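This section describes the prediction task in plain terms. A model, or a person checking by hand, is given the sequence of a single protein chain and must write out its three-dimensional structure as a string of tokens. No templates, partner chains or ligands are provided. The sample shown here is typical of the held-out split.
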Amino acid sequence: SGNCKFAVCTNALGAGVNFSHIRAVLHFGATDSLLSYAQETGRAGRDGKHALASMFV
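The expected answer:
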């Protein structure tokens, strides 16, 4: 159908890339810094809708 339900990404995708319709960002392990976490979790909700960010450590 061409629809992607999830993607596995590295932090290289965290800056400057905008995809609409991302509802959740899940981190498995801590990020390098709080700024990195903010950048990476900011990928979700870019279309103005509610989004979820979770970190599993």
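For orientation: The beta strands are 24-28, 52-56.
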